[in-house]
Design goal:
Mean pLDDT: 94
Distance between the termini: 70 Å
Shape: globular
Helix content: 25-40%
Bound molecules: ligand ANZ, zinc ion
Radius of gyration: 35 Å
Oligomer: single chain
Number of helices: 29
């Protein structure tokens, strides 16, 4: 008799699984396919508690689908380009690949110990030339379609990391990575034209509703930020030595045009400088300096007092010819809409605050029944009818909007316009450890893409340490033998583009590469891709709610448009697992509340840690490690394991003659677990499993006994269901029960619906005191049900022989006595 030893199991089973290729899909179409994917890790150090939680959840899904008979693709790889490797290389005078691949090896060993049911033969790393060759190839296809382009533009610049940041990487005006205040710099940068896909990215979210967390969809919707309204052209009159100029505004409220009393341009936009008269130029300059020092958050705060300067110019309202003073202010953003607005203080609070600060007129044009905003200081935004608005008077707001647009269109001064908050994706990085942009700049030919057959453009291997330190230009610029090349078109001297790609590019298509990671003729095998895509269940943290998921959706749509895949959404279902906290707070160095995953695994075993992650809460909720009990999980696992040890009947025994009460619990657990798993209620499944283990133990100790076939049936069901959460214990149980490895492919046990109903009792039916029938009924049968069943009995009807009924006495569930009239 052995005792439960997680260490012995962890030493024994991984090799068996590897030899049997248990987690490699057969991929031959003989079984329906399912693709389950966890967001791939970044190789910083070893795995941590967060990985342990996320990958436990994804593995439950993969293992469950495998038990259900699907051919499951559950791959693993690494998102292995990125800044931390480069910083480590600078510090250690090394090449970033050394740090990266050493960490990957560490993490891979931990994943294997953690028994992720991954197909290791499909392992990929985005920093491998075999991978980034195809990232470059895809970039070229985007480029050919006009979806990758270069433009000179002010960009977010981190003075410490010396690199450009995407808007998304600027958090509260500071660099997401190092917290340094971000400044602006003008650079020639590569962009992906994601804005071309804004409508589709928004509309196709309908397909995802119900399968993705509502909160993620809401965040994407808000990020895309579709606003319906109009573009309206105002002419800023010639003045102060400057010529007249047409300036367009974006407004969602063209119905309020008659209520515009002033005009505002973004103070930090070039337009402000262009418009200002000489007289006001110095004031504007000074104001612009002040604005630059503010963070985006401060600028957009509605709490802050409104500031601005008059430009000395007037804009003419196209509908009524009124002259509106043009101001420059920071509450109007340079990079939203057109960077200029018509201000309607009566109906827009920001404009009203500004009007009150600078004593500008307020004119209500919508009668909403509320107090006059000029008096109350509160802009009115409700429904109402138009006033003070010429030909629009009397119209309700909903009709006035299209009417105003129609007037503008007739005049040629405006048109309906849909504005998006979404910006094009800035993908250039002036860093080393990323995918080189496959473009050559030739003095005579201009931008020349590197021919496909010359891909990949590999990173030079001789740059290391200080060579990689930020200098404001890409470190690649210093690698002269790498930079200077022959132009593929004219064969004259030319230079490689020295920027590398945002690592979000690498992660925007890795799920496609997993389908055929060793394919050499393209990014993926066209004969295979539609077999697996889209991913049926994607699992990852909510921190990727916007960028990664939006970019992956964009890539998938473009690749779909290239005719390369059928799917135009990459992830049919998304699960955001919660975080692992300690003491109610996220684990962090500064709080010193980090929990080391390796130590937990050493102490409690892999299975106990995995089970705890899953059992502690629904998968979407956070787990507070201070509140959980891996030792409780470990005790439960040993208890389950001992069931298998106790069973004395032989494998293959017919369960039919087994104890009915225990069989009923087993079959109910199997049926409930499947339903709960389909709804991602993993924690409840574990609770049910605990009940089944208790019931089985009771049957062994004080009921049917260890030799009863029902006990074997229960122990086998425990092993199969447990294999989703605690693969080592389950495999060991399966082995004790006399089955060959692996329990992972045992198949989900079928449940017998007849066994789901509880055992019956016998109800006696009497007519005039004589027993006329016996009915098998549920112990829960109601009086009414039992009365109906008794009266429906043929024997009873024969005994009544057409007589009416005086009374029926029912004592559910045992007795019915019928007294005839
Ligand atoms: C006149 C007006 C009257 C407006 C009114 C609103 C209410 P969303 O919905 O976010 O798209 N706006 C336009 N561009 C802006 C910019 N660059 N910076 C700051 N504000 C800007 O908002 C569109 C509205 O925000 C536009 O409609 C404009 O103000 C303002 F009763 O025009 B509105
Ligand atoms: Zn050339």
């Amino acid at each position: 008799e052995g005792t439960y030893s997680f260490a012995a199991m962890e030493a024994k089973w991984p090799q068996v699984w590897e030899d049997l290729k248990v987690f490699t899909p057969v991929d031959d179409g003989s079984r329906e396919r399912r693709y389950v994917l966890d967001m791939f890790p970044y190789p910083s150090g070893d795995l941590h508690m967060g990985h342990a939680e996320a990958f436990a959840m994804g593995d439950v899904v993969a293992r469950y689908l495998r038990q259900q008979g699907y051919d499951v693709l559950h791959p693993i790889g690494w998102d292995s380009f990125g800044l931390p490797a480069e910083n480590a290389a600078i510090k250690r005078n090394a090449h970033p690949s050394e740090w990266t691949y050493a960490n990957i090896d560490t993490q891979a060993a931990s994943f294997k110990r953690y028994a992720i049911s991954a197909d290791w033969s499909r392992r990929l790393h985005t920093s491998d030339p075999e991978y980034y060759r195809w990232t470059q190839w895809l970039f070229k296809r985007f480029y050919e379609r006009g979806l990758a382009y270069r433009k000179n533009s002010p960009v977010n610049w981190c003075p410490k990391d010396q690199t450009v940041l995407a808007n998304e990487q600027v958090v509260n005006g500071a660099c997401e990575r190092c917290g340094t205040t971000v400044t602006k710099k003008s650079l020639n940068q590569w962009y992906f034209k994601i804005t071309d896909y804004a409508d589709r990215l928004l509309d196709d979210m309908d397909e995802l509703r119900g399968h993705w967390p509502e909160r993620v969809l809401a965040m994407q919707k808000n990020w895309i930020g579709r606003s319906e309204g109009a573009h309206v052209k105002f002419v800023v009159e010639a003045d102060g030595g400057k010529a007249a100029k047409e300036v367009t505004v974006f407004t969602t409220r063209p119905d309020t045009l008659y209520g515009a009393t002033f005009f505002v341009v973004a103070a930090d936009a070039p337009l402000a400088v262009e418009l200002v008269t000489d007289e006001h130029a110095a004031a504007l300059d000074e104001y612009r300096e002040r604005v630059k020092a503010l963070s985006e958050i401060e600028r957009q705060s509605t709490e802050r007092e409104k500031t601005g300067v008059f430009t000395g110019r007037y804009a003419v309202n196209p509908l009524n010819g009124e002259k509106l003073p043009v101001w420059a202010a920071d509450y109007v953003l340079a990079d939203y809409g057109t960077g200029a607005i018509m201000a309607v203080p009566a109906h827009d609070q920001r404009d009203l605050d500004f009007a009150r600060a600078f004593d500008l007129p307020v004119r209500a044009v919508l009668d909403t029944g509320e107090e006059d905003p000029a008096v109350s200081g509160t802009a009115t935004a409700g429904e109402g009818t138009l006033i003070n608005s010429g030909e629009l008077n009397g119209l309700p707001k909903a009709e006035a909007i299209p009417a105003a647009i129609a007037m503008l269109e007739r005049q040629g001064t405006g048109e309906k316009f849909v504005n998006f908050r979404l910006r094009d994706w800035l993908l250039s990085r002036q860093r080393f450890w990323g995918t080189p942009i496959p473009i050559i700049h030739c003095p005579s030919c201009g931008e020349v893409p590197v021919p496909d057959e010359q891909l990949p453009v590999t990173l030079p291997s001789d740059l290391r340490g200080e060579d990689l330190a930020p200098k404001g230009t890409s470190p690649l610029a210093a690698a002269e033998s790498w930079v200077n090349v022959e132009c593929p078109t004219c064969h004259g001297p030319a230079k490689r583009d020295t920027d590398t790609m945002d690592t979000f590019v690498d992660s925007s298509w890795y799920f496609l590469r997993f389908v055929s990671p060793h394919y050499t003729e393209g990014p993926f095998d066209p004969r295979k891709i539609n077999d697996w895509m889209p991913v049926g269940q994607y699992v990852g943290g909510v921190e990727h709610a916007i960028l990664h998921l939006l970019y992956a959706r964009f890539f998938t749509k473009v690749i779909h448009d290239l005719g390369m895949i059928d799917a135009d959404e990459p992830f049919s279902a998304l699960l955001n697992q919660g975080q692992v906290l300690n003491g109610g707070k996220a684990m962090s160095k500064s709080l010193g509340n980090g929990v080391d995953l390796g130590e937990q695994l050493d102490k409690y075993g892999v299975d106990a840690v995995r089970l705890t992650m899953v059992f502690a809460s629904p998968p979407e909720d956070d787990v507070d490690w201070a509140d959980v009990s891996p030792s409780g999980s470990a005790k439960f696992l040993a208890r389950a394991w001992r069931l298998a040890q106790a069973v004395t009947s032989a494998a293959g025994v017919d369960f039919a003659g087994g104890d009915r009460a225990l069989r009923s619990v087993t079959h109910r657990t199997i049926a409930d677990a499947a339903e709960l798993l389909d709804a991602n209620k993993f924690n409840v499944v574990v609770a049910k499993l605990m009940e089944l283990v208790n019931a089985t133990r009771k049957a062994i100790d004080s009921g049917a006994g260890a030799g009863d076939p029902a006990v074997r049936e229960a122990a086998e069901a425990v092993a199969v269901i447990l294999s989703l959460f605690a693969p080592y214990t389950a495999e060991d149980m399966w082995n004790l029960l006399g089955h060959p490895a692996s329990v992972a492919n045992a198949g989900w046990p079928a449940h017998d619906p007849a066994l789901l109903v509880q055992a019956t009792v016998t109800a006696v039916v009497q007519v005039q005191g004589k027993v006329r029938d016996r009915l098998e009924v549920s112990p829960e049968v109601s009086e009414d049900q039992l009365r109906e069943l008794a009266l429906a009995s043929e024997n009873v009807q024969r005994a009544l022989d057409g007589r009416g009924i005086r009374t029926v006495i029912v004592r559910a569930p045992k007795l019915v006595n019928i007294v005839p009239a």
